[in-house]
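Entry 14. Structure prediction run on the chain below.
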Amino acid sequence: MKVLMINPPSEHMITTNIPSVVDEERGFNPPLGLLYVAGYAKAKTNHQIMVMDCQVEEITQEEVEGRIKEFAPDVVGIQALTFTIIDARMVAQAAKRANPACKVVMGGPHVHIFARETLAMPEVDFAIKGEGELAFTQLLSALEGQMTYDKVFGLAYRDANGQIKDNPPAPPVEDLDGLPYPARELTPVHKYYSLIAKRNPITTMFTSRGCPYRCLFCDRPTMGRRFRSHSATAVVNEMEACLKLGIHEFFIYDDTFNVNRKRVFEICEEIKKRKLDIAFDIRARADRMDEEMLAELASAGCDRIHYGVESGNEEVLATLLKDLDLNHVRKMFAATRKHGMKTLAYFMIGNPGETREMALKTIEFAKELDPDFVHFSVLTPFPATAIYYKALEEGRFDEDYWAEFAKNPTEDFKPRLWEEHMKRDELIDLLKYAYKSFYLRPKIVMKNMTFTHTPLDFYRKAKAGLRMFRI
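Output returned:
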């Protein structure tokens, strides 16, 4: 059986925020969730597994159908995010036009939340909820008659009478070390790059799943709150496997890399013991960071730390259940710089209870922290998040509009914002001001140009800078 896994184009991506200088030219990251599923199926079956990453290969929607015809797959698996569901559906329609007999399977965070709405699309045959490695591979066995659909945990499907059947979710994967590596070798690994990396190509990695924190805005429903992790040995083994593919730089995409302090030290020690020639980013909480950990990370090759700060107002942070001491945040940004690592700070405006004056204070706090890169956004209550349910309970939204969108995705859709003290236009204008006031300062322009490593790197950063003038 021939199986084609597709990361769809992003031509019809739903968005509410303006692109940032980090996002606009950040490059391309591998579709890691899709590659985990492909890697598992490749390792556990004899099927021919192929991957088509439309975004990095710059395959347009017009070209998708022809590419699918070239592959002639029996099964097409499509990664679906809520913001890319229109493109994902168009790919499903193209697959059915290319071969009406092929089976179309959709999975990802959107499908996890909206499995029934996804199956209401006639071009989708199966929907997979939750972590998809085992479920997708079992579905392939079911398609060959080796098991029945009702035995596949995490699967939603139509029975012989056309009725939707929604199986119980699969339990979370406990032994992460037992999972095969993501099938990076099935992608053009040399095309993945980052604007802020020292060396390209880059890749993303998950060294853990789940986050124990309770931030109201968290939009990672598939992973859960229980922290599960790879061992230090397994993490560094995967890094060594990537080195053989010519990849020396890693963006560790864990929700919070430094949940387990002991494990952070074990990973760093293992990297140093093997003398790996690598650099890596992590996403971390400032309140779980300390000087000793920063020194250890720097000595192992950590080059950048991404901190979710979210606000410069402790009142707003308390509302978001993001328990941070801003004085400690200040100390950790300064300490990170002291140890020679760059910082990226995430901030949101338009939060519950936040006035314009409070948002301006957050923008000034971002400048005070002086990160190398900053990511501003307007709070968007995503589906199945605590902040979205809060908005529904308080009557800020008069209907479950995300569910309505999932039933009928249209290009004119606009996610709603938390317009308590500021309306949409004011929030977007304030977001533009935040980016310009941060990035167009002469010292930031000069610093970012100083960190260029190749002519192509200079071109990408200059292009991003020019775009900043036009927002």
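The CA atoms of residues 284 and 314 lie 19 Å apart.
Filed with the rest of this week's runs.
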